[in-house]
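lol ok so funny story. i was supposed to be doing the assay writeup but got distracted and ended up predicting the structure for this chain instead. priorities right. anyway since i did it might as well share w the group, maybe its usefull for someone
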Amino acid sequence: MSDLDPEDGLRFERLVLPHVDAAFNFARWLLRSRADAEDVAQEALLRACRFFRGFQGGDARAWLLQIVRNTCYSWLEKNRPRESMAEFDEELHQQPLATPESIAMAVEGRERLTRALETLPSRYRELLVLRELEGCSYKEIAAITSIPLGTVMSSLSLARRQLHCALVNPGCREAIA
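and the output, tada:
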């Protein structure tokens, strides 16, 4: 944070740093690689620090996640062909449960959900991750993705429908109108 004066540095720590985990999680879902997500999330935080003087207040999490999103897509354009991304590592997101049976059921459910999420187009996957995993409001998602609020709402509805279809019938390719 050497680019910031001490007052802005403290403000950055207070407003932005609490959202580092959300930034990494979002990058992880967009890039589908822990190592790449770590690098890109770090780059996004450096960019956020560099441009923090331009932050005029408001929702710091949405502001940071927008930077993460833009950094991820810039990185993807330079480093990967479209949609040929690394496989999701389930063990990174596994949480311990009470019994071996419940663990097996939870792992199977997470694997199904992960497989279904990864079949979605990146735009739908991104919206679902922001809303359902990161708990962002529709307004925050609109700000992060630069998509009009009404489009966010309708796209989330379509994304949920497509996710449901993929969960119920893994071979399903529901036409999205």
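The chain has a mean pLDDT of 83. The radius of gyration is 18 Å.
back to the writeup now i swear
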